[in-house]
Amino acid sequence: MDYNDFLKHDWHVVASSQDLLPGKILKVRLLGQDVVLWRNINNEAVAWEDRCPHRGASLARGWVENDALVCPYHGLAFNGEGKCSHIPAHPEAAPPKKSKACVTTYNLQERYGMIWVCLGTPEQDIAPFPEWDTPNYHKYFFGPTMYQSSAGRALENFIDFNHVPFVHGDTLGNSEYANTNGSEYTVQVSSDGIYISNVKTWENDLRIKGKVICRNLVFEVLRPLTACLRRVATDEPLIIFYTITPVDEEECLVWRWTFFNQEIPEKMFNEFTNSLMNQDVEAVESQRPKRLPLDLQAEYHLPSDRATVTYRKWLKKLGVTFGTV
Ligand code: FES
Ligand SMILES: [Fe+2]
């Protein structure tokens, strides 16, 4: 990974909080780096490089014991701060002070029911999700969905509403209405990210066959790999908070929260979301190159692509290189 990549200093989801059980170890991968997660005795999650400082063994193969993670190779134990606390071959020795005897630790926060890790020095907080604490919504979690493609391609798919009539033509989308989207919407870039508003899309009414509804949508790209969609001016408000783990340059995981003012049976919600996501995965995985081209000469752009063209320019300006060409 390019050491100067913006993504190294940004927060990324690596797991769902509920999947990291006390006493257990989770191995995840972020930006091409293996990371090990576990919880200390206070139930605080910690994230470390998955590499024992002694002889480089994978710590994820170890176990949690006495508020420490034990490496399975020679049994060295590391406390919640990543410091070596016990060496079985020298049980009487004082714990070593050398930094060489410490595991590389990463910044971690739990928010929105997910575990966020920053491999570098965080320069800003996790993306805001102001509705998180509001009681007005029914909340549906979905993920992770794996894409064998770059995170940039997957994020771009989320804000590229022009694909809906085709990729999701059998459910939400309606290809007869494909030409109504393009010209009106506005795109603004600020220090908060990209604000795409006045997006008018036609969707099939999922309850009444043959009825088509015009939706007014706002997309906010809050961070390079986190975006939010809000349906506005409606009595059916809906919010999708969408964030992506850049696992490797050409592999990513998509996590989404859907907030809706109506209750839907969980099974129905999951089946519907799953079918939409599968359609997105197929479309995105078919794209070549898998890495998102930030050189605007590399692909052909339409006037209706203003949102995605702005996204590519913004990534380039920020200095995002992982998963791009
Ligand atoms: S490699 Fe981990 S204890 Fe030796
Ligand atoms: Fe889609």
Q: What is the CA-CA span between the terminal residues? A: 13 Å
Task: Write down the CATH class of the largest domain.
Answer: Alpha Beta
**Fraction in helix:** 10-25%
Element pattern in H and E: EEEEEEEEEEEHHEEEEEEHH
The appropriate CATH architecture of the largest domain is Alpha-Beta Complex
Explain what this protein looks like in three dimensions.
It is built from four helices and 17 strands. It is an alpha+beta fold and about 325 residues long. It folds into two domains: about 110 residues, 3-layer Sandwich (Rieske Iron-sulfur Protein); about 190 residues, Naphthalene 1,2-dioxygenase Alpha Subunit, Chain A, domain 1, CATH 3.90.380. The protein has a seven-stranded antiparallel beta sheet, covered by helices on one side. The two termini are about 15 Å apart. The chain binds FE2/S2 (inorganic) cluster (FES) and fe (ii) ion (FE2).
Describe the secondary-structure layout.
Elements: E1 12-16, E2 26-30, E3 33-39, E4 45-49, E5 63-65, E6 68-70, E7 77-79, E8 84-86, E9 105-111, E10 114-118, E11 138-147, H1 151-159, H2 164-167, E12 186-190, E13 193-204, E14 212-223, E15 226-232, E16 238-248, E17 251-260, H3 266-285, H4 306-318
Antiparallel strand pairs: 1-10, 2-3, 3-4, 4-9, 5-6, 6-7, 7-8, 9-10, 11-17, 12-13, 13-14, 14-15, 15-16, 16-17
Bound molecules: FE2/S2 (inorganic) cluster and fe (ii) ion.
Fe (ii) ion binds at residues 157, 163, 167-168, 276, 280.
